[in-house]
Every structure is written in structure tokens, then in C-alpha cells.
Design a protein that fits this description.
This protein is an alpha/beta fold and 193 residues long. Helix content is 37%, strand content 26%. The protein has a single domain, classed as Maf protein, CATH 3.90.950.10. The chain has eight helices and seven strands, in the order αβαβαββαββααβαα. α4 crosses α5. It is globular and about 50 Å long. The mean pLDDT is 95.
Length: 193
Amino acid sequence: MIDQINNYNIILGSNSPRRKQILLDMGIKFTTMSSNADEQVPKNIIATDHCTFLAKKKSDALKINLNKNEILITADTTVVLGDIVLNKPLNSEDAFEILNKISGKEHIVLTGVCLSNINKQIIFAEKTKVKFQRLSEQEIKFYIKKHHPFDKAGSYGIQEWIGLIGIDYIKGSYTNVVGLPSSRLYNELNKFI
């Protein structure tokens, strides 16, 4: 139950406004800590494991500061097309190239989540399939110019204009695509405590 979760000091190891909003909407009281963990992933890690690798890496950088009644939540969202990870874009040209790649295609959004306290750590990932309709060059350019998706894996926010006009279908958790799988997180937190 949410009251049991709120008996703990929940720490979100992220400054993502989207993750913060999801926790607020869930009714979870929390504070934030920022992880400065290097987000490099070794070449031998397969695309679908990037998110759990980075969620754990972020947690490991922060959990040394945990006290007895605290639970740390870290997460990483990865967009995968085939076996290619579509990272956060470097600039407008990179964002255009990424969005053009996923235009008209189904891709996978994976969010890895790591829950840690001073005694234990669990890691899980949620998978959602998303398909964009064919996007025009003008639609992609308009979106990039208006929304600056440079802090988003796959160069888009599903809750923004491009998601509203361009998504053909979504199979799985919507909040997972936003950045945190709320239902799975709620269930895992209840098991964790």
C-alpha cells in the first residue's frame, strides 16, 4: 500500500521532471539526489540490457550515502530499434536522423529500474512496444524546433506533440515510455519493503 511505501524515505536518483511527476501522481513522497555516474556502456552489453546496466550504475554511485530507512530509486530508459540503441540526440541533425529511423516502424522502449537500500538491491526492466505512423520531414523538423527533445532517449517524448499526432499504437505501459513504469514500480516497491 502507498502508506507503507511512504513510511520510508524514498529518494529518486534522478532530476528528470517526467520521473518526478510520475512519482507525485502515484502519491509517493520523495526527495531527489542527482547521480553523476558515467553513462558509458561496455560494447559487450546487448541493447536490451543497457537500461538495467545503467540503472544499477546510477544506483551504485548513490547508494553509499543511504541511511537505514531510505530506499533509492534509479532508472534508465532506452529506445531500441532492432538491435540498435537510439540514445539521446547530440543535436538537431541527430534528432532528425533518429526520428526518421523510427518513423513508420515499431520500436521497443525499455526502462530499467534499480531499488536499493542499505541491505539489498533489486533490478528489473519493463518493455513497451511503440509504433509511429510515417512522419513527414516537416513534422519531424517542427517537433524538434518546438520541443527540443535532446534529453530524451529516441529523440521524443510520447506525452508531447509528436506522440499525440504520430503514435499508431502502444503495447504495454504508457508511463514506461514516459520514463518510469508506474504499475510495476508500485508492485516492486511493495515487495521490496
